[in-house]
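hey
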């Protein structure tokens, strides 16, 4: 069929159908592709030479990435969205009821609508390659699987396993999918085609796969009868509310769609699924999550500097400093990028400790079945270390992760320059110190850059890349490209104290200190911001970062920006008293065996106050949020990030600004500059100039303009 995304040929009675969306890196399901599918299946049904059908992707490493999100964004009403869902359901009902056997061979990503298509087929073969991943990630875009996913997946693998995937938008590797019963056969990529064709051939003779419900007797007890399922649904609802605090409606609606389908049958379940999708697709939460998705997709193609030469490929990485951050960077670089990593510290016991901590990143991936034991052994062999710079001579990139002190960092830079080749890039993992000041000690300042990782490195997705005024463009593209290989979202930010994340986070943290000093209880302050949508509150975040690190950051920031950033006196004595947070086993909270306990009430003596209720909750939230929004607006005005998009993505990925609010700058747009200026002026009158509205917001209020046009 000319111009079609689908082509087919018939061999020995089997129609071999190939989906290949020309000019696109991945296969997506759009309205045009749906029409192609319908036309193809009508032809195949009529063709008497065709006894069975086998479907494959023409892309080397992708099956189907999901629905075309551009079409989904163009929807303006719930009725339009419901109709789009119903069209997808009709197509897949046609596939499920196709009168001839239908097998599918899956290699590469099989997500969203791609998995829903596979679920409608009669037999599924998947490759055991790490790139073969199956899932229904729709809730991450604020919607639910709406082409039958909420109906067919639970019927195939049971309610518990299906809800585990659907409600978290979880993507599983092929091995796990096979264990769950999601695919019928798991084979080497080289024989996916042959095995799929053999299955199609077998089915022409009347053979049908016998599928056992996973989970044995317990599976039957909980998934196989209405009473058991009621318990499963009740538990799932509790879990969803605990995790989302009601801020994300999609998981609850997906749960309703699954439950409704079990109670009322497939046809009515599909209808309810489409109705719920219609409402979610045009909701504000979904629009914000889709904007974040598009922004991160654009960032993957952005090397952070215009007309930069291609990045240098990093094969060998040197790391100076084997503490918490250094070992985290080492473990993640080996696990994600597969590079040779050489660590250096002042003495061998420290190096040994760092290597053991880096190994834990690999151990964790093995435990979660992210890698095999053979891959684990191979990657482990890439880690080494010493108390000298031996082995650094061939490193393309060296990252220092030593103490946050300018003189110490400059000394390390001098040492690294003598131990490495002239073309080697030197990156500082500083959280606040301007890179230009570190580079003042360099013989090759054009090779010096900042790479600010966030703690813990293995889990936090953001990387701030900070060029100084003298950094060469190729060094910027090298740092960004390597950050991406490590699985990070890399944002290029201007070389200014605190860069972007700590610049906007410091006023928020300081305001938390003021509220504590005014009598707000520690746990109440944390609870308020978790209800607002942050993953943890400001006090828990301080414990995670470390009070000594926070004190250092506060000193640098107040020196750079003056009274506006004056540290709250509430935090002053904590580091001196050995309360460094989680890493020391005590901070504001107690910690035992790596687990966070209750607030340590004796901390109030060090703060110099006792909880007395403090300001009203609404005022506490207002002060914390506006302190951050005001500083974010000011920093954008100074060009700290190249666009509001970069600033919002960095806030969401760097410290968990609530994604459903879109980021601090989108949230500022939603509130409106006029309202923000008025509220900040009222706070400034009562609490002082730290709340004075910045010029950017005042200008926006005058012009009635926004960050996003």
């Amino acid at each position: 069929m000319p111009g079609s995304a689908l082509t087919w040929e018939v061999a020995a009675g089997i129609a071999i159908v190939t989906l290949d969306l020309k000019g696109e890196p991945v296969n997506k399901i759009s309205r045009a592709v749906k029409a192609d599918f319908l036309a193809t299946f009508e032809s195949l049904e009529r063709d008497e030479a065709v006894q069975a059908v086998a479907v494959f992707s023409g892309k080397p490493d992708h099956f189907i990435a999901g629905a075309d999100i551009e079409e989904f964004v163009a929807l303006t009403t719930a009725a339009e969205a419901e109709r789009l869902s119903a069209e997808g359901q009709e197509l897949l009902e046609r596939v499920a009821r196709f009168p001839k056997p239908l097998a599918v061979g899956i290699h590469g990503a099989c997500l969203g609508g791609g998995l829903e298509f596979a679920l409608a087929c009669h037999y599924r073969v998947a490759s055991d390659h790490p790139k073969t991943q199956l899932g229904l990630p729709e809730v991450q875009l604020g919607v639910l699987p709406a082409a039958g996913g909420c109906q067919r997946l639970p019927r195939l693998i049971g309610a518990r396993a299906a809800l585990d995937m659907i409600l978290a938008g979880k993507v599983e590797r092929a091995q796990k999918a096979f264990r769950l019963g999601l695919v019928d056969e798991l084979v080497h990529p080289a024989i996916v085609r042959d095995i799929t064709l053999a299955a199609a051939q077998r089915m022409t003779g009347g053979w049908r796969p016998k599928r056992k419900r996973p989970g044995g007797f317990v599976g039957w007890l909980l998934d196989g009868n209405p009473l058991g399922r009621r318990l499963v649904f009740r538990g799932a609802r509790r879990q969803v509310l605990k995790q989302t605090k009601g801020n994300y409606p999609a998981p609850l609606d997906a749960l309703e769609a699954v439950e409704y389908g079990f109670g009322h049958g497939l046809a009515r379940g599909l209808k309810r699924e489409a109705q719920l999708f219609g409402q979610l697709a045009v909701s504000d939460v979904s629009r914000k999550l889709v904007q974040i998705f598009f922004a991160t997709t654009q960032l993957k193609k952005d090397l952070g500097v215009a007309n930069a030469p291609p990045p240098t490929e990093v094969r060998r990485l040197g790391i100076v400093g084997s503490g918490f951050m250094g070992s985290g960077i080492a473990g993640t670089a080996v696990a994600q990028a597969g590079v040779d990593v050489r660590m250096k510290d002042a003495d061998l016991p420290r190096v040994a400790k760092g290597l053991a901590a880096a190994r834990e990143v690999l151990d964790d991936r093995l435990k979660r079945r992210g890698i095999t034991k053979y891959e684990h052994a191979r990657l482990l062999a890439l880690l080494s270390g010493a108390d000298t710079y031996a082995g650094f001579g061939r490193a393309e990139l060296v990252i220092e992760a030593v103490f946050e002190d300018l003189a110490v960092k400059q000394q390390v830079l001098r040492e690294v320059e003598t131990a490495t080749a002239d073309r080697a890039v030197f990156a500082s993992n500083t959280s606040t110190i301007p890179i230009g000041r570190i580079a003042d000690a360099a013989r090759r300042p054009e090779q010096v850059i900042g790479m600010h990782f966030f703690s813990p490195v293995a889990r936090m997705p953001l990387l701030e890349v900070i060029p100084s005024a003298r950094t060469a463009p190729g060094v910027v593209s090298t740092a960004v490209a390597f950050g991406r290989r490590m699985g990070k979202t890399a944002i290029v930010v201007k070389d200014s104290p605190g860069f972007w994340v700590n610049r906007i986070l410091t006023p928020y943290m300081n305001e938390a200190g003021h509220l504590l000093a005014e009598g707000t209880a520690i746990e109440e302050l944390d609870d308020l911001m978790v209800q607002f949508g942050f993953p943890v509150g400001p006090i828990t975040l301080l414990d995670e970062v470390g009070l000594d690190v926070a004190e250092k950051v506060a000193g640098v920031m107040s020196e750079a920006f003056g009274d506006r950033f004056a540290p709250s006196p509430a935090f002053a004595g904590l580091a001196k008293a050995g309360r460094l947070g989680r890493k020391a086993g005590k901070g504001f909270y107690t910690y035992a065996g790596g687990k966070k306990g209750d607030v340590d009430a004796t901390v109030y003596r060090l703060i110099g106050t006792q909880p007395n209720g403090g300001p009203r909750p609404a005022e506490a939230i207002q002060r914390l949020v506006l302190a951050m929004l005001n500083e974010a607006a000011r920093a954008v005005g100074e060009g700290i990030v190249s666009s509001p998009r970069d600033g919002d993505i960095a806030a969401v990925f760097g410290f968990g600004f609530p994604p459903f609010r879109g980021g601090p700058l989108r949230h500022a747009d939603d509130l409106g500059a006029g309202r923000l200026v008025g509220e900040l002026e009222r706070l400034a009158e009562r609490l002082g100039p730290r709340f004075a509205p910045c010029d950017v917001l005042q200008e926006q209020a005058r012009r009635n303009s926004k960050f996003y046009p």
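The longest strand covers residues 6-11. The mean pLDDT is 94.
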